[in-house]
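Progress report, Aim 2. The chain analyzed during this reporting quarter is listed below.
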Amino acid sequence: MTTNTSLLNALLPLVAELSSNIPEHERYRRLLAALRTVLPADAAALLRYEAEGQWLRPLAIDGLSADTLGRRFHILDHPRFAALLRAGKALRFPSDTSLPDPYDGLVEHHTHAPLPVHDCMGCVLQVDGQPWGLLTLDALQPGQFAGEASLAALQAFSDLAAATVATVARIQLLEQTASNERQRAEHFRRQAPQAVSKLIGHSSAMRRLQQDIATVAASDWPVLITGETGVGKELVAQAVHAQSQRADQAFVSINCAALPENLVESELFGHVRGAFTGAISDRQGKFEQAHQGTLFLDEVGELPLATQAKLLRVLQSGHIQRLGLDKERLVNVRIIAATNRAPETAVLHGEMRADFFHRLNVFPLRVPALRDRDGDVLVLAGHFLEQTRSQLGLRGLRLTAEAQAALLSHHWPGNVRELEHCIRRAVLLAMQQSHGASTSLSISSRNLQIPQSALPTPNTVNPVAVADTENANEGLGLRATVEAYERRLVEQALHSHQGSWAAAARALHMDRGNLQRLAKRLGIAKVANDNQTRQR
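Predicted structure tokens for the chain:
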């Protein structure tokens, strides 16, 4: 009777909150908090079962490291999870079981891996007769869950919790149906999870971005995605496509910055045999390949002005013309474009046509920099750690407290891409220190090798030099003044790095190709080349 009363006392607030407008992750967190009032434990987790691919994805944690939320556990790699799913009911593992614990190194108050002998149990949540997910509990004190009473309490809680998550899911479906027609809602349910799952993060900035993605995906208008290098603009484009009515059609991507100027139009519009030297056969362009689907133009600001004019016509009429062919073709393509530059500034400098910009900028999406995504650094770090662990066949990876602090304190000028490379490099260094042993590894702040920032950015340029530049440019117009300032920054970066394009680009937080094009436009490319020649 006491157990039933405690169960009811724990779950009644959850039932009362079903009609409240509470974020999903907060609702699941409260579910775990209620579970720990019924069955005290050191750690608890709610994991969602993804049948396709056989993954378990943490939705809420209590007592585990924050980076756990960024991980996805492949069931084949974790025999305890596999055993729980096979059992189909509450299951307690013997304290001396030989099965590795998936949470080794992740329990908050236990920094050593593997975990010592401890109590562990879990239960499958069944919704409509199918496994929906798992509830897991870990207690560092052996015997904490001894006896049938703990198993019975967990089973009863899981049954009621399954009803709760099923109700939440139905409420969400009703809300979605109310705002979209039934066919669109069903289409979103089928197509969205794979792409949206790649946009990892729980910060308010990411939640706003995902809301904007859902809004614009329902239309067929062009989308312009802006953001710094490395923030994940292509993932955002994929998410827009996956949630659109074109999701079952092609998603074609092209990096405009990597195209030689004499081949841009051939790549976009195609050509016929003999159209130019080397055209030995007919070839479809990206627009034809993306017919009925989506064409993603990455680094669109790097396109020549003449090509922008031709693209503008395609955006207006849908007609393209292969090189060497007079006949036009009609294509039905949605355009998503991205740039790491400020397009308004590019228009001001004459590097982007104003009409082309306004045609693309129907619904702009700004991808936040990693430094503006509060709390997402550790979540993303956990995701990359789990990916790396699986790829390298390691038993477990964890971040020390010092490493977590180092990750949180870094500015991340290279954003998510820099974080991913940092984590992968740190794992390799940790393996090197452990002589490559396939075991649980702890990643220290020393392994991360986070560089100290000493970059010639506008915030760190010598103020005397800036003052000299301002005095020298006195009386010039806005555009000329901006170009003079850019020239000064580029020249300083090249001089500081002995004419190395790659090092100067890293210092200025730019792609090497973009830096070379900027330097060429500013008339300083030859200076850098001369410096490199003298170095050799």
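The first strand starts at residue 43 and ends at 50. Residues 276 and 324 are 8 Å apart (CA to CA). These observations will guide the mutagenesis work planned for the next reporting period.
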